Amino acid sequence: MKQQASKDIVVAAFITDSEGRVLLVEASHKDGWIFPGGYVEKGESPSAACTREVEAELGVRIDSPIKLLSVDYCDSTEEYVMFIFDCGTLSDEQIRMIKLPPSLRRFTFLAPEEAQPAMRRHSSRRLMPTVAARDKTGIAYMEHEEVF
Questions:
Q1: Containing structural domain, residue 121
Q2: Model pTM?
């Protein structure tokens, strides 16, 4: 009998400012910039987890419906599936209201071409397919950060 797979589910928020720059955070326990996000809790949907994580990590509530932009299956050292959601564009007022928890050092907004080299390797490889999915209103499916 085959064993059913059990994988962690991770979510990330793709957020921009009015100039189209991508919001990235720097975690105190990791080097490099990443998307805001985290793990889905038991009994929680990925979209609900993304909304919760944005509020917990940025202090900003995302009220608009969020759309799935990309999915990445990764099985390097930890097997997980990452969902990246479009959490919209923050207004200048929302950006001023950002309050980071102690687990995050700082945040920044960078143009995608500037963000890519600054990001952690896995996040960096997910960036451009996610940008393309938002621009084309499609969904990018990846395995190991490569478009499938």
A1: 8-147
A2: 0.90
